[in-house]
Amino acid sequence: MSISHTHPGTFTRQGTVTLVGAGPGDPELLTVKAARAIQQAGFIVFDNLVSEEIRALFPSHAETLYVGKSKGQHSSTQDEINDILIKYAQSGIDVCRVKGGDSFVFGRGGEEMLLLAQKGIKVDVIPGITAASGCTTYAQIPLTHRGLAQGCTFITAHADKKLDLNWPALAQLNQTLVIYMGLSKTDMITNQLIEGGMDAETPVAFIENGCTPEQRIFTGQLKQLSQLKQQHQIQSPALIVIGQVVSVANQMQWLEQLAERAGTQELAEHKLKMSA
Length: 276
Hints:
- By secondary structure, the chain is of the alpha/beta class.
- The protein is built from 9 helices and 12 strands.
- It has 2 domains: 113 residues, Cobalt-precorrin-4 Transmethylase, domain 1, CATH 3.40.1010; 120 residues, 2-Layer Sandwich (Methyltransferase, Cobalt-precorrin-4 Transmethylase, Domain 2), CATH 3.30.950.10.
- Pathway: Porphyrin-containing compound metabolism; siroheme biosynthesis; precorrin-2 from uroporphyrinogen III: step 1/1; Cofactor biosynthesis; adenosylcobalamin biosynthesis; precorrin-2 from uroporphyrinogen III: step 1/1.
């Protein structure tokens, strides 16, 4: 517990800010520690990527504030969010800053942690399952796979200007590339990777609303990236996965279909024997 001195002879308890990674959407992927912190919070500040199922777990005694950033809607600026966190913590309230995925993976959690610490506010951080891990797993796409990918790289395409990235390095064939917030830049991503040396027929996947009941998965080839997006009207939030590991999901789908057909045939044969 930290103490701040306000007036001579009086002390005010200062609250703690806990940065909580809420995971990619499925409430059962929320860690026990994260769930406990949410239940104990007096004030919860949450983002657009925190699923409705997880929001339903917010305790009734806690004040809540939505500060999500979504296209076409008013967004709280980072400075406004920082001011809110500082104000409530300094007033003695324990705050949960709940973010989708993991706060330290494209979530500006590091910035918030440093700023709060500079203000003398105690900060706790609880990790969450980042979308690149959770969503690919639910889509049956392993990030690494013997013979297909020896590593993986996460990048964000959320930038106003052309992305300053080492595209030839990203185009290496022995790794998986996972792109956050890349829907508006599919043409650029395709062109840069192909120019960097990646095969235009490299398998790709879109995972929309991953780890939720609304999850949709579409696969194709790198050269079809923009076509897939338009054809299926893919909307945010969506991940782009590029690499040979996408073929594993296609193999799984084929094997599951075979198993289903075999089961159907076995059931039909059993019924035939019973009726004989």
